[in-house]
Amino acid sequence: MHKKLSLFAAGLALATAAFAEDLAPFPTWSDAYAITKGPHEHLLASYFAINSWSPNNRYVTVLETDLNGRLPEANERCTLGLVDLQDNNKFIPITTTACWNFQEAAMAHWIDDDTFLFNDVRDGKFVTVVMNWKTKAERILPLPVSAVSEDRTWAVSINYARLSLTRPDYGYAGPGQDAREDVEWPEDDGLWVMDLKTGEHKLILSVAQGRSLMPATKADPSKPGHPLAYYCHTIIQKDKAGSHIFFLARSVDWFDKKIHKASRWHTTSFTVRKDGTELRRCFKDGWAGSHFNWAPDGSPKLLVTAAWDGHVKGEWARTAWSPVEFTVGEEEKVRRIGAGVLDWDWHCIYSPDGKFMSGDTYWTANNERPWVLVRLADGMTMPMGAFFVPEPYRQTYWRCDLHARYRPDGKQIGFNSVHEGSRQVYLRDIR
Fold this sequence. Notes:
It is a single chain. The two termini are 25 Å apart. The chain has helices spanning 3-10, 12-18, 160-166, and strands spanning 33-34, 41-44, 59-65, 78-84, 90-97, 109-112, 115-122, 125-132, 138-141, 147-148, 154-157, 190-195, 201-206, 228-236, 244-252, 255-256, 261-262, 266-273, 280-281, 292-294, 301-307, 321-327, 335-336, 347-350, 356-360, 368-375, 381-388, 405-406, 412-417, 424-429. By secondary structure, the protein is mainly beta.
């Protein structure tokens, strides 16, 4: 485990005995147990922090594939199905999709017990499919989803073809959208909002509109490609109105789409309202931004992993990062979580009651992924284990991040892992 985490764990028993009575006690967790198995590999069908359980908690959305060791190619499909938790974890294949990857999967979201949505390719275009999984009846919406509102009435969309130019582990291969590859700061692409009933959509913020608040790019004649800016990684505030959208704005100085290489990212964390107004930077220059989660109570409060000291030599430099918490409109009051002990790039998510932060991260020198639980009131940290990563899963594009997410009632947490030798889906019960 990371050296700082090991030192912190050593003093955990003493610290636990001293915490005040009015602080929430740490929950107890079961050991991890698999709900999928070979010979196929499986992963949860959406990005970290996104709910995978049906509203009745019986089914979990999962992708099934035999692919490993490379990126999915254009129109290469995998199976989207459900694990029935009340029938011996039976896997029920429902459909297939060609819009998927090992990080965000197919961005599946539940609408109700009978209906979920996911991204797919139809007639050569990246779209959203809204499907009744029992009858297989479906509706096609014209843009793929990147985030869905709490009331399941609207979604944010981005350009996954453009994202694939610099982040093929998050974008979709193929010409399903116009990547606008030759335009550095497009005025006709960026953040889109789409009605999930009608499919009506609107560009609320172009990439060009963010230019004045983003770091300048610099062309490198010795490299292929050219500077390119884009938006990615979106999430909607959990209030009824979906008042704010958090997203990352990134740019690169060059990219080589043939070998999937690019310069280091220049990242800015933003929030914006649903109508495209009140675009706000979350942090000072150099703080960048990585993983994120809105507070579950609907308030405009966020957990984000950021470069606390503002000096990132390369955005993959893990020790420069720290989870922080802040409220939109009060960005100057940003609070560091973990007092320096947690300086790393965590997938930080709130527990459903908002009292704890679950954090999982990248593998250490021991090839293990640490997982911690942090009580937000005082920053006390509990180690949740470390999960071994076999060598075939240590490559960037087809790595297996834990990507934990809570069941909405807080009684389970699900994650992906390869610690038993293949990519499978696991649960832990929370007591």
